[in-house]
Design brief:
Order of helices and strands: HHHHHHHHHHHHHHHEHHEEEHHHHHHHHH
Number of domains: 1
Number of strands: 4
Distance between the termini: 66 Å
CATH class: Mainly Alpha
Helix content: 55-70%
Radius of gyration: 25 Å
Number of helices: 26
Shape: globular
CATH architecture: Up-down Bundle
Strand order of the largest sheet: 1-3
Strand content: under 5%
Largest sheet: 2 strands, antiparallel
CATH topology: Sodium/glucose cotransporter
Length: about 600
């Protein structure tokens, strides 16, 4: 069977599995819909958390960025990994002890304010919709590359699948669907990495192949790659063109943004206790490490294979018979453009511009010694998907990778949809505007909200093509979370003097400044030469996070302290099993102004 048939088989089987799980685990109450009844096993929750957290940016885009940015792309690897550790150790257990459904729920009760809850909802929606745009873009990339359909149609198919298990199953359905999606995505990521590692280095372990010698030589794979990219005029693979301050800020923004992501935090509310939250966090880190330790190897292998197959290849136009023309070029001692390149060129994600008119594809960097301009422009989001084709792996491996990429994108999209749905139905409707709403009505509103969010997510996925690579789009969401939500969560847990006025000021400061900076430099025509302290939009959230914290603390000190019962609560939630914290989990404090 050819690769397209295998792709249809894997995609159909996995999509059918996800929908089947959603029907089996249909939510019957608001408790099931929001937090899966608080009874998910820690190991299961750890696997679901890993799938929720490892989005299309992790699966599709991170290795591609590492492939073409080299050391500079490691900011995503370091930031996301460090951020999860920060979240697991610093925040998750205490938030679980507090016992709320959502991050806005925590903010509203901790800061005894309905208005603070609404501001938190706005922040959560900004973060979630920005993040989900990247996921749906990843869905479009996967579909367009392998099923021969337009990216926008692929996004629409993804919307239908997510609709089933997010709207029907709620968090209960999403949890067990994400377990299945983790199994699919990790298998799909590691199997081709093993094949390619054996081909390039002879070592079946990608993490070790990455630092091994190239097959049949005494030269290390990284040294060989450094030499190749340097000879073509690119920056050495193990160096970076990013300013050090920008590397630091992007890494930090991703770290603190992870600790403020509502769709990840909500996963820790699905277990029975703070202790279970800690255990599930540990399991999630193990499951995440399987992919994240493989990503640098995948990136390096992709760059090596891309250069070997594309540079100095003779281009074959679409009007020509590929097989006949390729045989003719090979007979003359030339190298025909590979089949995989022609497949991906049709998607618009690869382009070739023959500057010198010789019909030969020159892949060059700005310091190319032969003075030739670069003629090949790849989209970095395609390389995890294209890698098996480039390495000429079996068709079933290629189909498996497509299913894995879709699993990564859809698992995170589902978690984000839950945040959007719960923010509207629970935090805005039941806790703010319609306090007398019963459970049945709230569940209906939650499902309607999830359905509307699915439609909005698809439209954003189409628009996301104008924003940049998947990982860049996602980085904007992390910056918004770092600047707006992290300060109030952190101070809400560790500083009992933080009050509602300070929280509102901090959230608004972080959200407005970070969004304005990103908008100006990405859409408003801002010149990168005018970056504040050389910090790019991907990293500015870290800078404005400190501004938000400073504003929040200053306002809190100038306004009345929180009620004594709130200050006592802050102390009690840091003591696992405290009666006061469990009392809050059962009943909660009525919002007051």
């Amino acid at each position: 069977m050819d690769q397209q048939i295998w792709t249809y088989i894997f995609v159909t089987l996995t999509f059918g599995l996800y929908i089947g799980i959603a029907i089996w685990s249909r939510a019957g109450s608001t408790d099931d819909f929001y937090v899966a009844g608080h009874d998910v096993h820690p190991t299961v929750n750890g696997m679901a958390t890993a799938a929720d957290w490892m989005s299309a940016a992790s699966f599709l885009s991170m290795a591609g960025l590492i492939a073409f940015l080299g050391y500079g792309g490691s900011v995503y690897l370091m930031g996301w990994t460090g951020g999860y550790v920060l979240l697991a150790l610093l925040l998750a257990p205490f938030l679980r002890e507090f016992g709320k459904f959502t991050v806005p729920d925590f903010v509203g009760d901790r800061y005894y304010s309905g208005f603070a809850r609404v501001v938190a909802v706005i922040c959560a929606l900004f973060v979630s919709f920005t993040y989900i745009a990247g996921q749906m873009k990843g869905v479009g990339v996967a579909f367009s590359g392998f099923l021969g359909i337009p990216a926008n149609l692929g996004i629409a198919i993804g919307m239908v699948v997510v609709f089933f298990y997010a709207v029907l199953g709620g968090m209960k359905g999403i949890t067990y669907t994400q377990v299945a999606q983790y199994c699919v995505l990790i298998f799909a990521y590691t199997v081709p990495a093993i094949f390619i590692s054996i081909t390039i280095t002879g070592n079946p372990v990608p993490q070790l192949g990455f630092i091994s010698n190239a097959a049949g030589t005494d030269v290390s794979m990284l040294d060989k790659l450094n030499t190749v990219v340097r000879d073509l005029g690119f920056t050495e693979y193990t160096s970076s063109t990013k300013a050090k301050i920008d590397v630091f800020c992007i890494t930090a923004a991703l770290m603190f943004g992870t600790a403020g992501l509502p769709h990840v935090i909500i996963r820790f509310f699905t277990v029975k206790s703070a202790q279970a939250a800690r255990v599930s966090a540990g399991w999630a880190l193990v499951f995440i490490a399987l992919l994240y330790t493989t990503a640098p190897a995948v990136g390096a292998f992709a760059r090596m294979n891309f250069i070997d197959t594309v540079n100095e290849a003779t281009y074959i136009a679409d009007s020509e018979d590929y097989d006949a023309r390729a045989a003719e070029i090979a007979a003359d001692g030339g190298k025909p453009v590979p089949v995989w390149y022609k497949d991906w060129e049709k998607t618009g994600l690869l382009s070739y511009d023959d500057h010198n008119g010789d019909g030969v594809m020159q892949y060059r960097g700005p310091a190319a010694p032969d003075g030739l301009a670069n003629e090949v422009v790849p989209n970095r989001d395609i390389f995890v998907l294209a890698n098996p084709q480039i390495a000429k792996l079996p068709g079933w491996v290629i189909g498996l990778v497509v299913a894995g990429g879709l699993a990564a994108a859809l698992s995170t999209a589902a978690g984000l949809l839950m945040v959007i749905s719960s923010a509207i139905s629970h935090d805005l409707c039941r806790r703010t505007f319609f306090p007398n709403m019963n459970d049945k009505t709230e569940l209906r509103v939650a499902r309607i909200s999830a359905a509307g969010a699915v439609l909005a997510a698809g439209l954003l996925g189409i628009f996301a093509g104008q924003l940049g690579f998947v990982a860049q789009v996602v980085a904007f969401a992390f910056g918004l979370a770092a600047a707006s939500l992290f300060p109030v969560i952190f101070l809400g847990i560790f500083w009992k003097r933080m009050n509602r006025e300070g929280a509102i000021a901090a959230m608004l400061t972080g959200l407005v400044t970070t969004f304005a900076y990103i908008y100006y430099f990405k859409f408003g025509g801002g010149n990168p030469a005018n970056y504040l302290w050389n910090v790019s939009p991907e990293g500015i959230g870290f800078v404005f996070m400190w501004l938000a914290m400073a504003v929040g603390i200053a306002v809190a000190l100038m306004t009345p302290a929180p009620p004594q019962e709130v200050q006592d609560l802050v102390e009690d939630i840091r003591i696992p099993g405290s009666r006061r914290a469990h009392g809050m989990a059962d009943g909660g404090m009525a919002p007051a102004e």
